[in-house]
Description:
The chain is of the alpha/beta class. It has helices at 2-30, 51-60, 75-83, 149-152, 155-165, 167-172, 203-216, 218-221, and strands at residues 36-41, 88-95, 101-107, 110-115, 120-124, 129-131, 142-145, 173-178, 184-188, 194-198, 226-230, 238-241. Strands 6-5-4-7-8-9-10-11-12 form a nine-stranded mixed beta sheet. Strands 1-3-2 form a three-stranded mixed beta sheet. A hairpin with a 5-residue loop joins strand 2 (88-95) and strand 3. The longest helix is centred in the N-terminal third of the chain and has 29 residues, at 2-30. Residues 19-24 have low confidence and may be disordered.
Amino acid sequence: MKRILSGIVAMLFLAYLIFAIIMLHGKKEDSTCENLIIVIKDSLDRQFLSQDNIVTILKNAQLHPVGKNLSDINTYEIEQKIAESELVSNVIAYKTPSGSIKIEISQKMPILRVFSARESYYVDDAGNTMPAHYLYATYLPVASGNIEKSFATTELYKFALFLQRHSFWNNQIVQIYVLPNKEVELVPRIGDHRILLGDLDDFEEKMNNLRLFYEQAIPKIGWGKYEIINLKYKNQIVCTKK
Length: 242
């Protein structure tokens, strides 16, 4: 009998909890949003977006949540509108237990600055372009010459990502020049020479060969002996003296 009574009490208590949660949820959904919280991640080194930018985007789209009933606020629409920006990598919008709307934004990470005959832009670490009218203080390699955007976001992007992921090359290569036949020349930070990389096929193998040349030959002959270091030919390094 005691077990039956205990079971009934437990069921009544559970029913009360469910009822209270439903009533509390309904009350919150009927309440008004009084606060918008915007968190822009990595804003210390990537100052492309500000909270004012996001507020302006939402107001122009009539999606600014403050003053609206929580039940009328569509956080998915907010996410989609902010994600349209060329500067946004990821965005999450949600309702907090206190009845606010919180938006968390990740900015794109540029890895290459491109100057083509027609335009200039950044390429980010996902292979997408970004507008160049935003200043970015961190050093990036610069690519110029005959660059189509399709080439910049595929082959050149892969090469730039390789540079970005290897600190030695990220510090050493300052400029990438693309010839009309899509062969590539590199300008190093250290050493008064040009590097003829050729096409970007097997570029990792070519750069590994150059790294060995730097480590084994340069200490013996010095940085100033050669004008051109040619890596175009497979497993060969052909140097031209000054």
